[in-house]
Amino acid sequence: MSSKGKPHLNLVIIGHVDHGKSTMTGHLLYVCGSITDREIERFEKEAELIGRGSFKFAWVLDKLKEERERGVTIDLAFYKFETKKYYYTIIDAPGHRDFVKNMITGTSQADAAILVISAGTGEFEAGISTTGQTREHALLAKTLGVNQIIVAVNKMDLASYKEERFTEISEEMGRNLKLFGFDITKINFVPVSGMIGDNLGEKSDKMPWYKGLTLLDALDTFTVPPKPTDKPLRLPVQDVYTITGIGTVPVGRVESGVLKPKDEVIFQPTGKKAAVMSIEMHHEEIAEAIPGDNIGFSCKGLSKKDARRGDVVGHAKNPPTIAKDLTATVQVIRHPSVIAVGYTPVVHCGTAQVAIRFAELKMKKTKDGQEDNPDFLKNGDAAEVLLIPTRDMVIEQYSEFPALGRFAVRDMGQTVAVGIVKKVTPK
Asked: What pTM was computed for the model?
C-alpha cells in the first residue's frame, strides 16, 4: 500500500466500551485492503475454535495488540489505510488502555475522530448516561483539539435497520456535540454495521431510507489542518540517543515552526544552547523540518546529560516558556473523591511529566452561570484554576501553541482531568 502523493491524517476511534469499535475498525481495515482475505480467514478459524467466529474482525485488533505487547513485530500497515483522498493512520485503536493519555502525549495528535455509538437496545442509552463514555470521549476529543468528527451509529443490524432508531440517536447525540462546541452542520452521522459491513465501504441495500455517505466517503470530507510553520519553533523531546560517530541525538516531533541545520537552539527548562548540525527523518538527511515531522537531530557540543525527555527545543532567540504559574480551564473526568486547593497530581504536557499544585480554584461553571472560589471540584465539573508547577517545566498558552497548551492530570494510574492553558506567567 503506497501513500505516495496522498495527504496524511491521524485518526482516533472513540466511544463507549462494547459499542463495537474493534469489530468496526477491523472490518474497515479489511474493506480498505489493509488486511487480506487470507489473514481474515486465519483470524476467523482461530475465533471459531473458541466459538467466537462472529468476532473475526475484532479478533484482528486483539491479535495485533497481543502480538504487539509480546514484542512480535507487526506490519504497522494494519493501522494504516487509504481512502480515495487520504492516507490514514489510526493512532488510537480500540482496546488501548488509556486513550486520554495517548491523545495528549501521543507522538501524533489526532486530526479527526470517528465516534462509534451502538444502536443496540439499551446500549446507546448506557453509553450516553452519566457513567457512560460516549459523551466523555466526545468532550475529550473536543477539549484536546480534535474538531473534525464522524458519528458512526453502529450495530444497525441489532436495531433491525430502523430509520427511527438512527434518527433518535443522531438527534440526541447532535444536541450533545453542539453543547461541546462542535459545528453540527459539518458532522456526518452514518448508520453502519461493523459486523456485517453495511455502509462501511459500499451503500447498504438494507437502509434505502439513508441518503448520506458511506463511512469511507465520509472520511474524505475531512480537511488537512494547516501546518503552523510561521510560528516560533517548538519541539518536545521524546528521547535522546547516543549514536557513534554522530554524538547526542535528541528525537521528537516538530509541533510548530521550522528547524534547519546551523540553527542556534535552546533546550528548556535547562537553558542549554547548541547549534544544529544535521537533521534526519526516516534515516535520511533533510534540509528542514516542519510541523508534524518526527525527526532526530545532532547538535555541536551537546552531551547526553544536556537533554532529556520532556525538554522542549526552541530557537535561542525565541525560547519556550518556563512557567512560574498558569491559569487553566480544567475538566474533571474521573476522580474518586474531590479536588481541593493543595491537590498535587502529575501533569502530562507534551512529553513532560511534572507534579503541579492546584493553588487556587477561581471559579467553576454551573448550569446557571458560575460559582466563584468553589471549595472543591468533582467529576463533571469544568473550572478555572491557578496551577503552580513543583519544578521547572515548559508549558504554553493554548491559543499560541495548542500542542503545549493542553495537558492531562493523572493520578492513581488514570486520567483524572484534562486542561487547556489560558495564560502563563513566565518564570
From this structure: 0.76
